[in-house]
Amino acid sequence: MRPSIWLQRGGTTAADHPLADSISGTPLLTQPERLERRLKDIPAEPGCYLMRDGDDRILYVGKSKSLRSRVRSYFRSRHDLSPRIRLMTRQVCEIEFIVTDSEAEALALESNLIKNHQPHFNVLLKDDKKYPYLCITWSETYPRIFITRRRRFRSPLDRFYGPYVDVGLLRRTLFLVKRVFPLRQRPRPLHQDRTCLNYSIGRCPGVCQEKISSDDYHRTLRKVAMVFQGRSDELQNLLQEQMQKYADRTDYESAARVRDQLQGLDQLTADQKMSLPDSSVSRDVLALACDERLAAVQLFQMRAGKLVGRLGYTADASGLSPGVILQRVIEEHYSQVDAVEVPPQLLVQHPLPQQLLLEEWLTEQRERKVQIHCPQRRQKADLIELVQRNAEFELLRAKQGQEQQALSTEDLAQLLELPLPPRRIEGYDISHIQGSDAVASQVVFIDGLPAKQHYRKYKIQSSSIRAGHSDDFMAMAEIMRRRFRRWARAKADGLDLGALRQKGGSALQTDGLNDWPDLVMIDGGKGQLSAVMEALRELDLHEDLNVCSLAKQREEVFLPGDSHPLDSEADQLGVALLRRLRDEAHRFAVSFHRQQRGERMKRSRLSDIPGLGAKRVRDLLSHFHSIDAIQLASVETLSKAPGVGPVLAQDIFNFFHPSDENNGSLASHLEEPQLEHSA
Q1: 260 and 338: one domain?
Q2: What pLDDT, in 10s, does the model give residues 412-467?
Q3: Whose CA is closest to 127, among 146, 147, 152?
Q4: What's this model's pTM, rounded to 2 decimal places?
Q5: Which of 179, 234, 446, 677 has the least C-beta neighbours within 10 A?
Q6: How many structural domains are present in the chain?
Q7: Domain limits at 103?
Q8: In this predicted model, what pLDDT tens digit does every residue of 174-216 receive, in sequence order?
Q9: Is residue 406 part of a domain?
Q10: 542 lies in a domain?
């Protein structure tokens, strides 16, 4: 039975309110009377609630058997909330609710809403970069399949399988899958008007030239997905039936192709790590190991008595019981999988607070009975113990990494005589070739680990830095001015930088000034450091920021105003942390410089063609993807590109293929810049 649901925005809508313009984007916490009206209008019935911000984006989706009491709990005793939820409540401008007939319906509805909207604050499981996912972009006409460490929901149709603990096994599996099944091997076509070698040897079905229909390619990928859903046995049975049908029709070539796929699947399933002789029942086994702050959760996928997958999660364990953590992992994991991936049996280490409700929800999702057990003895209990031991190893590895980073930041604080270990450290570097394509990088380490979401790239804007004239000191000073001008403006306006830094450090500042670094590291020696401090004096921030530099030659650390480096060892933990930061800033700057240089070289070469302006150059590169493809294209192919007619297509072709007849003007056009350059 479908739930009878209805949705309402709590209380009077913003459009009906007499002060609609003044309150539409204002957080409810700043308007107590309006907040109280919203809370009173929420019914004490089961359902889901949606928190929205001032831009009408969904921040959080939750469920409860009593909506009123649950939503009120967010705004009564905020000191008992986690920092993540406190940050969320500061941004809530509107509350919606959906009433359902039962709590089970609310659970199913919450799962669908989270899956469709992906609210930012609904993430209990951390984005652990150790664990990769396998992504299939089902939303595309010809889906791609690839390994990624970041889940980006471009479309609700795209699927992420994992996270997989054994990265090497995942890569080997994908490699074998691409050998067994004909799949697209490249993200972009190698040639514009013909297939590549992969098509000739049967590795690719000719996706680039649409040699296979989209429906047929989707059918092939659905077979591939069965491998990563733990349904290899089911896929083997399906292929055996298909091979027999081909043989009965005397289509022996197709039967041989399916036979090869079966042999490849045998190679995939030959490396099972564990086999249980008890039964052919498929089950998932969940166990965890946790301390006061962190929980490591392991999920073993057992299919027909074999271990076909081991997934890993980390979760915030602060104030949560093991049963609650396992329940939330089950909710989040199984809300993202297909119905065929839900096994008939789940074994859990601890009793779940809402076990019957979860069984009902999973049964409805799978459309067959699902049972959850908490075994206490015999073989199933031994299996739980095995999964728990794996979770303990993962927790120990995570804690050792955290302890190592804590020791590194403490050693760095002692070396630089900082009052506290630096939590946010920023590193800067400049990259160019004799002044051309000069760029800068800003990388950020938080608690000793890279925080790539905070990385920034800069193009040097100074007209004095150009090809043939470089000035690293001027470039570094420019970046400091651009990076900290918002903070300098805030200080000039009379704001308390100490209070802003404290809020920024606690991650609860939402007005844009939440990126104050505890330490800034410059890649270079005393010269670069002096230029940076001069720029900070202009901003009146030289006494507020902690700045140091790391010289490459002897790994020496300099502080402002000191003519001699600090007394440090190259292998001590604090210096090693600065070295990792410096190397990451250098890598990020060099990669951005190469990208800019490559784009300039492409555009400068095409801009030599008469009749090609900047827009047409961009359109050509967008259409052909590379300058080599433009050079190899025929006149007819070029004329089909956007904004290119037959005449311009002939000019482009003649530019790359000068003949004896047209060596005159075009050849001289090519030679003149070379003569000027050599002069």
Answers
A1: no
A2: 998 998 888 998 999 999 998 888 889 999 999 988 888 888 899 999 988 888 77
A3: 152
A4: 0.53
A5: 677
A6: 5
A7: 6-122
A8: 887 787 788 888 777 777 778 888 888 878 888 888 888 999 9
A9: no
A10: yes
